[in-house]
Design goal:
Shape: elongated
Structural class: alpha+beta
Strand order of the largest sheet: 2-1-3-8
Number of strands: 8
Helix content: 25-40%
Number of helices: 3
Order of helices and strands: HHEEEEEEHEE
Strand content: 15-25%
Low-confidence stretches: none
Mean pLDDT: 87
Radius of gyration: 25 Å
């Protein structure tokens, strides 16, 4: 009985560790992709650069027995969208797809799943292999994680006070002259 619990806990721990590693990879990939977004450039170029950045950063992470996380083909995808604030409902609305351009959202998804061909035959098994799962009839674990990152540009203003009129505004002695 104790051996059964130990065997079960090893596989469950390995699944949790791998899912955490996969989540770290998609978090970093989403942040890398969202940094490529620019509403002033051609959106086709922006999406190409963002997808390449996401793939590159995801490839630097490992997940379980794979030395790098891949988000190519059936193993993951990068989606683009737009987040806008609805003043009437006081909530954010999300649109996904090409009609949402210019984009300010990126969703990166990574999967460890079996890949089937058109006829339904197993083409490639990307499941996370388990140590003791095959004894119980489970050859691998299916994992899927995703992360969404948003780009919200902010206006930044730099004030250069050449007249020195604001030199002492932050001192306590000038509290009565503020706003004059």
């Amino acid at each position: 009985l104790i051996l059964t619990f130990v065997v079960f806990s090893v596989d469950v721990g390995y699944i949790a560790l791998s899912k955490g590693q996969l989540q770290n990879a998609v978090d970093a990939a989403a942040l890398a992709a969202v940094q490529e977004l620019n509403p002033n450039l051609d959106q086709d170029d922006v999406t190409t650069n963002a997808v390449e950045a996401a793939k590159e950063i995801a490839g630097l992470h490992r997940a379980g027995n794979h030395p790098e996380v891949s988000i190519d083909g059936n193993l993951g995808d990068v989606e683009f969208g737009r987040r806008t604030f609805n003043v009437q409902t006081q909530e954010y609305t999300y649109e996904w797809g090409p009609e949402a351009a210019p984009y300010n959202l990126v969703k990166v998804t990574a999967r460890r799943t079996p890949v089937f061909n058109q006829q339904g035959d197993l083409q490639e098994d990307n499941q996370l292999p388990l140590f003791f799962g095959p004894v119980l009839g489970a050859s691998g674990a299916t994992l899927e994680t995703s992360a969404i990152a948003t780009f919200q540009p902010r206006d930044i203003m730099l004030v250069l006070d050449y007249s020195a009129s604001m030199n002492y505004d932050s001192e306590l002695s000038s509290i009565y002259t503020l706003g004059q």
